[in-house]
Amino acid sequence: MRTTDPTMIAFATHLLACEGITAFPLDVHMSVLDGSLGILPQRLMVADRDHFLASAVLRDNDIPTGR
Predict the structure, then answer these.
(1) For range 33-38, the mean pLDDT
(2) Is the model's pLDDT at 12 over the cut of 90?
(3) CB-based burial label for 47 (10 Å; 0-12, 13-18, 19+)
(4) CB under 8 Å, gap of 24 or more: what pairs does 21-29 form?
(5) Confidence of residue 57 (pLDDT cuts 50, 70, 90)
(6) 3-state secondary structure string, the chain?
(7) Of 12, 40, 51, 65, which has the highest C-beta tally within 10 A?
(8) For residue 45, what pLDDT is reported?
């Protein structure tokens, strides 16, 4: 998933953790480059083996996965 909303990253990470899926937030510190404006999106990644279940969990909770 990719979003500029840091609360969405935290919520999605929590939902995935509840299902036993480890999520890796990427680009967290990119706000330094954009002056903390929040225009550069952060990404949330999961292992390939967890992708199907992670997509289902996010979709069930109305979180767009961007795929």
Answers:
(1) 60
(2) yes
(3) exposed
(4) 21/46, 21/50, 21/53, 21/54, 21/57, 22/46, 22/47, 22/50, 23/54
(5) very high
(6) CEECCHHHHHHHHHHHHHCCCCEEEECHHHHHCCCCCCCCCEEEEECHHHHHHHHHHHHHCCCCCCC
(7) 12
(8) 93
Contact at 8 Å (CB) between 53 and 20? Answer: no
State mean pLDDT over 16-41.
78
Q: For the packed helices 6-18 and 51-60, what is the interaxial angle rounded to 10 degrees?
A: 120
Q: Where are the domains of the chain?
A: 2-60
Residues with Cβ within 8 Å of 37's Cβ and at least 6 positions away in sequence, in order, are 31
* CA-CA-CA-CA torsion sign (57, 63, 66, 67): positive
